[in-house]
Input
Amino acid sequence: MKKESAYWVFVVHRVSGIALAAFLPLHFWALGNAFEGEIRLDGLLAWTEQPLVKLGEWAIVITLAAHLGGGLRILALEFLPWRDWQKGLAAAAAALTLAVGLALALSL
Amino acid sequence: MWKGGAEGRFREFDVPRHPSQTVLDVVTYIQRVLDPTLAYRYACRVGMCGSCAMTVNGEPRWTCRTHVDRVVKNDSVSVGPLRNLPVIRDLVTDMSGFFDKWARARGQFKPSRTKKDDVARVRPQSEDRRAVDAGIECIGCGVCYAACDVVSWNPDYLGPAALNRAWTLVKDERDAGRIERLRAVAGDAGCHSCHTHMSCTERCPKKLSPTAGIAGLKREVFKSTLRGEL
Amino acid sequence: MTPKEETLLWIAQRASAAVLALCIVVHLATIIYAVQGGLTAAEILGRTRGNTAWLAFYSIFVLAVAVHAPIGLRSVLMEWLGWRGRSRDRVLLGLSVVLAWMGMRAALGVFL
Output
């Protein structure tokens, strides 16, 4: 069945949410290593300088931005009185994701 | 054309093409001329009753209002029963589950006055009444229910039509059943499972927006919970 | 779960979402700024060590995540894996505790 854009925003939102839920324990674990001191953390940071890891980081941030965009859309649909322009929020969510992705790509 | 029950298969039929032909015309021709055992439903055939809803090329729609020219691909059209409903035979589905959910969502008006009271005065331009009017034209055709993915993932989900009807009653200032209705539509089986795919709004032949109604229900349930009513 | 309990879960999900939206904007802005010209442990820890404002910020962030992620996964497990009932909710509660614990460990790790 043909799917409208709202369906794809949902899929992105859900899949990105699952990805973030899987990523976060790793993130917390890595930062928790700061307990062991600066040297351990620096070692980890050096590892993250590798291009593939940098790409992974960028992907994670994009995933985060996508999830945020989709989430803001849901908050708007659920809490604001209904208006027809709210259908265009799918595009807004995508735009936000792109903007964040670019900002990060430029700074990396 | 789908032939059989839940277990069945698509069979091919050759049907003469005419100008301004609808998919319902095609189905009727098949039953009258090619296969008298074909089971299907229709009534008004002019887009008022919603009985002829079927799956055409994968999309739920009213077959009487679907011109063959609009959907034909490589000289063929695929017709099957509505999704998310048990198939009785061929193109006929069992809609009792659909209407049971309507009842479970408390989609019935509960009067607050008797015939001895004055007639209720409802301003048609009030915000509440306009919200009701925007959703009241539902004729229970089942297209939205067939279009909804959450219905297929969650068998308990009340679905867009039942929830939309509940919304029109929640906003009806004459109705006395508000709290029980909000209780009925809250939760995993109710409005909170809507993920705003908007398939229902996209496909509704009456151009209603169950998504809007369900979002409204979420707000009403939220307010009611904060007030300790639920 | 009763309708009221399920509504409270929905409220918690939306409230934590709003909190996270703010936290993430701050977090992303900080990351994008801090990553300029490379990143070292000294730089990170220089900002966060002994800084109660950052600790408060990350604690709120962690707690909001511990609420938001499990409730979000709840729908996924039910709709895409058909997992319903008490066992699913108990596992998710466990996940919430794990996330909160690991997150606070990380927040304290960069604070102390």
Q: What stands out?
A: The two ends of chain B are 47 Å apart (CA to CA). The longest helix of chain B spans residues 210-226. Strands of chain B lie at 2-4, 8-10, 53-56, 59-62, 79-80, 87-89, 92-93. The CA atoms of residues 39 and 90 of chain B lie 6 Å apart.
